[in-house]
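Example 9 (inverse folding). The structure is encoded as follows.
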């Protein structure tokens, strides 16, 4: 087995750090798009006109997404 030295710090790992920042920017952008698009889908596709109903549509979407993430995370660990 070949043992290589671990390089610590941002200077040594700037490529990995840049990739991490880029991925986080994309995830943040997707969350922003989701918050904008989901109410529009609720209003146009399902005929929801009330602000309270639109918020409940977003909350129910978030709960289902969280449950799906929980299950997929558990499956990924096995």
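The amino acid assigned to each position is listed next.
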């Amino acid at each position: 087995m070949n043992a290589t030295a671990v390089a610590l710090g941002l200077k040594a790992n700037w490529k990995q750090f840049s990739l991490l920042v880029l991925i986080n920017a994309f995830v943040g952008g997707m969350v922003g798009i989701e918050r904008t698009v989901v109410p529009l889908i609720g209003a146009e596709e399902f005929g929801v006109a009330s602000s309270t109903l639109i918020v409940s549509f977003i909350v129910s979407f978030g709960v289902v997404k969280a449950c799906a993430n929980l299950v997929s995370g558990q499956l990924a660990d096995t």
